[in-house]
Amino acid sequence: MKQALIVLIIMLVSCESSDDFLTEINPNTITEESFWKSEDDVNKWNIGTYAALIYGRGASWAATFPRFFAWASVERSDEFFVTWGFGWDLENSQFTLDATNTLVNFLWQPYWQTVYRSNKAIEKIPDIIDLDETKRKELLGEAQFQRGFAYFYLINLWWKVPHIVTPIVNEEDFYPPTVEREVIWQQIIDDLTAAKANLNTVKTRDASSHGRATWGAAVGHLGKAYLYRGEWQKAAAEFKELIDSDVYDLVADYNDNCNDFNENNIESIFEAQCDYTINGQYSSWRGRDGGPKDFAENNGYVEPWLVKTFLEEKTLDDKIDPRAFATLIFPHPESTLYEGKTYEEAYGTLDPDAPAYWRKYRNVDNGFSNDFNGFQSSINDRIMRFADVLLMYAEAENEANGPTASAQAAFNRVRDRVNMSHVDSGISKDDFRAVIRRERVLELSAEDNRWLDLKRWGILEERFNDPEVLSGEFFNINRHEYYPIPQSDIDLNPNLEQYADY
Amino acid sequence: MKKNCSSDVYSSDRTVRRKLFLKMKLIVILICIIGLTGSYASVYSQQTKLDLSIQNTTVKDVLKMIEGQSEFSFMYNASKVDVLREVNLNIEDSSVEDILKKLFKDENVSYKIIGRNIIILPKDGESSQGQQLNSVSGTVTDSSGLSLPGVSIIIKGTTQGTITDFDGNFNLEDVPSDATLVFSFVGMKTMEIEVAGQTIFNITLEEDAIGIEEVVAIGYGTVKKRDLTGSVASVKGEEIARQSTVNVSQALQGSVPGVSVVNTSGAPGSGASLIIRGQGSFSNTPPLVVIDGMIGGDLNTIDPNDISSLEVLKDASSAAIYGSRAANGVIIVTTKRGESGRSKFNFQATYGIQSLARPLDMLTAQKWRDIEVWKYNNEGQELPVNLQSGNFDPSKSTDWQDELFRTAPQQKYNLSISGGNESSNYSFSMGYLDQEGIAIESHYERINVRMNSDFKRGKFTFSESFGVSHEDSRGGNITSIRTWPAPVFHAFDENGEYGSWSPGWGVRSPEFLITNNPVADREISDQTNKSLKLIGNVSASFEIIDGLTFKTNVGITWMARHRKSFVPVYNVGNVSSNSTADLTEWRDEDLNILLENTLSYTREIAKHSFSAVAGWTRQSTDFARLRVVAEKFPDGIFNADAAEEILPSSGGYEIKSSIESFLGRVNYSYADKYLLTASIRRDGSSRFREDLRWGNYPSFSLGWVLSEESFFPENNLVQYLKLRGGYGQLGSQNAVSEYQVQSVLALGGTNVDYPLGTPQQFTNGVSQVSLTNTGLLWEVSESMNIGLDANLLDNKFTFTADYFKKNTRDLQFGSPVPLHLGFGTRSSILVNAGDVQNKGFEAALTYHKRNGELTFDIGANVYTLKNEVLELNTEGDILVGGQYGISGQFANRTEVGRSLANFYLYETDGIFQSIEEVNAHSKDGELIQPLAQPGDLRFKDLNDDGTINANDKRYFSGNLPDFEFGINFSAKYKGFDLNLLMQGSVGNKIYNGVGRTLKDRLALNADHWREDNKGSDIFRPTIADVNLNAGRASDYFLEDASYLRVRNIQLGYSIPAHLLSKINVETARLTITGQNLITFTKFSGYDPENVSFGINRGANSSLYPLPKTVLVGLSIDF
């Protein structure tokens, strides 16, 4: 018994406090508790939010704007005729997709990542003690811009989406319902209006901060939101404010908007930053699709009507619109592709009916001999540039007040760069509308505007029924105006209302 | 000490005191029990009074009469105590001591009363003159009178001994006249005979009544099989070694009812997945493995030849002693230890050839082209240029299966030495395995060393078990078949360079650039995966008083793993290339330390048998990883120092976790008739929030041996019958990783960093990339088990049956987070998602027969499992799973009232045979499948809304088998032995996710639907799958995966001893073994066992098919 007692004592002595032994704190990363203390913290958080612009899916080859959105816009619209693909991209461009489509899944994710991340910043920034007030406004404005920006794409690509403006805390927050579209639109306008005010001090950025949102990005997108809603007067006012600020101008060489030599330039309002030389993870993947046959992976060709549009009108000195050579690879003696090869050298023909391909956003100007192994590029995605703002202003002003001198001036400014004639100053409102729409094709093709333009103009169905357009055999306005919400989310959240009959 | 019963358990100092109190309480209870039983025992012999009146009766009968009147039992050696002497006695109301005094008054006999046991011994001095040495000899036979060769005869306590020759004769020199001879032979009861001056021994060995006297490990102690109350299956080391498998886990297949052993991969060195009594949990975690007392071992690191026995604790009442560690069952491995006697040497060698078990029939280039041509013609599209006549050369056809698989040798050796004396023993072994994989470039090499020893001195015992293994492997799955190139492409071109391909083959990307050259992919990169694992523990025990032992056990496992992946600069045409040499290198270290203090007590008093154990344990793990990612290397140099750039994705981390437990168990049996076991374990884990970290896991079980009852009639049918039943609770934290309940942020990394600025700079961002549930709870399962053990028909048959029901509540489940919450694909949050019930029935029957020189054993087992989700806490009472690839296809769904991960698919209704049939598939004049063409699948519009969408899915059965079974047969005749093991599963299905695209490559696809082949059940090939034939998860891809597999067949021959004695070899056995030679199944993929678990259960996704193997082997003892 005595021995048993000794053993007992040994056992008791060898037990120290259990709770110390059982407490393990994660030694590998920062925690929610230790974060949100300083300007640097918020800075880093906002950078994390921008990340969704280029790889929202979280895989190294998955680029948001510089790839998925190109599918949603360029390949899906009447700009490009898609002949083959993986299946899911083909379903997308041929309108045979269902709610399990991979592209829809890829597209859906990054905007919601931006929403979550910016929600968190908007919640936390006001309570950070160690933060200069000017800086606080600036950082908050940046987050508000990001949220408004994300919802803008959500409401334009999907019919109804949930309205989430606070960070997810626990499981009760997992099942938000879809809301009326107007609720989301109001959120976009509120966010961008607030962002515009808070970013008032940030008209330009240091070279080291290029890529972060500025006052101009907020104003431009606010104007765009009004424009899409048909609030012409308001849209025109915002665009005018931007134009009059003299912060932005057009670059002299149109081609500077198409490659990676002169990024974040004076024309640039908001760009997705891409650089494939850093770890391969920040690449643009636009070169993956729509490139010239035999030199890049080729999945189709530029629609003939579009090529024709470029060739219809010559410059004042009777040359082909220089934007054609920057945008397209097409059967013309001066059209070049990789390593300065001409179309004829490459394909042995200049038959005007031979297929055309995209040149804009490809690695053509970088000395590549082809793009088979270099789908990835460093070319930033110009999400919004000043030329677009000028054309949007002309459009809004025309709709609100007719073809005013101010509207015509903005329009002519875009034409001047490429030495094209001014609009006839006596033009009617309707005619001016038509030339603006045409000008958007010449200026902005392959830059992701076309699908959304056709949709807001209400002419999707008309275009796909037009005999000059090859795409859209299976297009059905009641089913394809918006994307379905991915089936996986419908399965997980029964409060979501699915679009159409998906 | 203050008894603090405050409800405020969160206050840390109170909690500590509370736990100390608990700890003390256990020990106090234990001491009280010891005291009670002790005093109770000494009283019995004085208080029991007996009456005896006898005339001319032998002493033997008198003792029997006393046993009949009381609970005493006598032990004596009839050769030393003259019990046939006749006596007269007349005694009333006397104690047993008085009776014995009278009975042995003038005899040279003493006696000892120990509780209710009385031992009668010849008085000291009587036999002390016996140091003279004799030569003894004799014959050993079995009960039928046939001689037994190979019986081992050892002089007890020495290393001296011999074995019987071919005719059962033996001769042993220099045997002390007071020695004891131990006769042992496999399958026979071991017999001890005192020499007592005799020189001739004709011994008959009795057959072992199949195992009920065997000792079985139950964790923190052992128990005789006859005293078991829980459901514990025991597998002998020989049965494991005999199968010649590379891993222990594979050897368990088909041998333990209730244990599903599934070979999810046939990669060299890969072990099988073990599932004990079904999946109660979403996390497919393996059962707890305890190797020689060290918790958390790895079955794969043990050489099957090193195992002495292996126990599977199947039900909660037996596993509860391991509390939260045991939710998926427990496997206790006991490795071989030395025995008293001379050194024994054993050497084993096997050599074998493996090949693809079930090769698939692949398309030839010509047939592939035929399909493509049909496809383009059918859709009215221009034929790709390379497929046009004149350009296409059908003579060059590649069977990628042949390119990627091969026949591969394997060899395995094991050398062991063991021996010992009365105070110490040792056992050393060394094993070497070299296995090439059937997939090119895969291999596995393992070296094991094991050292076990025990030392005894007085009341102290020290034991040590130590194993080291080194593994060097390259496995990995073979590239998924869906990405194999078409047969028109070639692994190598005319110049012997890796084959590449250019456009012109078709519009579908797999026919063009997306498809890499899989041979090049495997050969070009340089992959290393080496690990050194060490598992060892040292225990010291001290017997404080008789039967009361204190034991400290300290165990360590340590693993160092080094992985390296180097991809040099290469260029395979347009197919794939690497412009900068890349290196990724990982170094991992995993340290696991266990400390256990236990106090155990055993006491037998008359018919009461009592044992108890109480203990306190702590275990901590510390995992650290260092990772270097570098690029741009000079030619021929692969180490990071030579790299031009170390990339920012380099890094490292450390994960620590700890667990603390208190445990206690009591076993009690009365007269081997009534059995009781009760245990409790209290576990605290660092993985939960402080106030939620402790859990208590109690259990109890009862057994009743009916055959020991006096009312149980003597009969020829049932010799032994035991009923048992138990209840227990177990916890689980298996789905919870360390720090998972702590909210963390990602500092940098993919999806967080962004290249800002002009020029662009890599900029670290911060974000939250997953959601955290800080309030996560233990997963708890409660289960009950009812069982029956019986020996039938003259002990020739043994029968065991169990029924169990297990309810698991607060299931931990990584619930997929909807994408609109902003965490991307694959993001999930761990929640306590619901309750699941598993119930099942298990039965095993064995038959043992020895008929002269022919011995044979037949065993059969069968088990069933039903699974039902009782409750889910998620919205809509649904959990979704079975995600395929990246397209968000779900093939399984978990819903209340159904089984876990039930198949949930579109229902197909054949193939449209004509455009009329497509048009007829309509609702209110609108086509249900407007894009369909003849040859496409017809989907049922189950909700009748005129369109096919996710609401048209329904449940399909088959994610669990109806039953699984194993049959083994072994026979021995003279020197020959034959073993056969078959195993299978009936009623389970596989959603053939691979097959969805695999069919493009299989020969059977040539039989696709077309106008002139309308009977075909293979839908038409298409350029773009507009009807979503392959794009929808439908029952079309659900295949019957029932199978019967001849897992192992072995023929052995033991060379006669008289031939071996000349070369000093005791036994030598030659074997030829075939593994997985035949499989009967309808499944169209490689392997019906290739099943995924968890929420995707039944979905076939990956791929390293199981090889079939033919082995020759040699085993010698000397």
Can I get a quick summary?
Chain A is mainly alpha-helical and 502 residues long. Chain A contains 21 helices and 6 strands. In chain A, strands 1-3 form a two-stranded antiparallel ribbon. A two-stranded antiparallel ribbon of chain A has the order 2-6.
Structure commentary:
The complex is a heterodimer of chains A (about 500) and B (about 1100). Chain A is mainly α. Chain A has two domains: about 40-245 and about 480-490, Serine Threonine Protein Phosphatase 5, Tetratricopeptide repeat, CATH 1.25.40.390; about 285-460, Alpha Horseshoe (Serine Threonine Protein Phosphatase 5, Tetratricopeptide repeat). In chain A, about 45% of the residues lie in helices and about 5% in strands. Chain A has 21 helices and six strands. Chain A has helices at about 1-15, 20, 40-50, 50-55, 65-75, 90-95, 100-125, 135-155, 180-200, 215-230, 230-245, 305-310, 320-325, 345, 385-400, 405-415, 430-445, 450-455, 460-465, 475-480, 485-490; strands at about 80, 270, 300, 330, 355-360, 380-385. In chain A, the strands form three sheets. A two-stranded antiparallel ribbon of chain A has the order 1-3. Chain A has a two-stranded antiparallel sheet with strand order 2-6. Chain A has a two-stranded antiparallel ribbon with strand order 4-5. Chain A is globular. The relative contact order of chain A is 0.13. The mean pLDDT of chain A is about 90. Chain B is mainly beta and about 1100 residues long. Among the domains of chain B are: about 50-120, 3-Layer(bab) Sandwich (Phage tail protein beta-alpha-beta fold); about 135-205, Immunoglobulin-like (Sandwich), CATH 2.60.40; about 215-345, Beta Complex (Ferric Hydroxamate Uptake Protein, Chain A, domain 1). In chain B, a hairpin with a 6-residue loop joins strand 49 and strand 50 (about 900-905). Chains A and B meet through helix 1, helix 2, helix 3, helix 4 and helix 6 of A and helix 1, strand 27, strand 31, strand 32 and strand 34 of B.
